[in-house]
Specification:
Number of strands: 3
Strand order of the largest sheet: 1-3-2
CATH class of one domain: Mainly Alpha
Distance between the termini: 89 Å
Order of helices and strands: EHHEEHH
CATH topology of one domain: Arc Repressor Mutant, subunit A
Largest sheet: 3 strands, antiparallel
Strand content: 5-15%
Shape: elongated
Structural class: alpha+beta
Number of helices: 4
Radius of gyration: 26 Å
Length: 96
C-alpha cells in the first residue's frame, strides 16, 4: 500500500510553483497575472516571489470578505441605438 502524499509546506514567501499550487491555478496563469500586476508579487533577481499574507489579503478583497472603505461606482453599460426596422423599397435605395 502506498503512503499518502505529504502536503507541501506553505511558506510565507513562495515561488511560482508553490503559489500556483496554493491558489489552485496554473503556473502559466500566475506568471501572466504577476507580470500584468493583477496579483501582488515581487521579483527577486529574475524570479517571481509571492508573500502568502499578501495573497490572502488580495483574495479577501477580491471575494468581498473585507469591507472596503468606499464603495466602487459601477457605470451602467450604455445601450446601443436600435436600428430602424423599416424596410426601404428598392426604388428609394437606388434614388430613382
Amino acid at each position: 500500500m502506498k503512503a499518502p502524499l505529504a502536503q507541501p509546506e506553505i511558506r510565507e514567501v513562495m515561488d511560482i510553483r508553490q503559489a500556483a499550487h496554493y491558489l489552485g491555478i496554473s503556473a502559466d496563469s500566475l506568471y501572466r497575472y504577476a507580470a500584468t500586476g493583477f496579483i501582488p508579487a515581487f521579483r527577486l533577481g529574475n524570479r517571481w516571489r509571492f508573500r502568502k499574507s499578501r495573497l490572502d489579503e488580495w483574495m479577501d478583497r477580491r471575494s468581498g470578505l473585507e469591507e472596503s472603505v468606499a464603495p466602487r461606482l459601477v457605470r451602467a453599460q450604455q445601450k446601443k441605438p436600435v436600428r430602424s426596422t423599416r424596410v426601404l423599397s428598392r426604388s428609394s435605395r437606388t434614388g430613382s
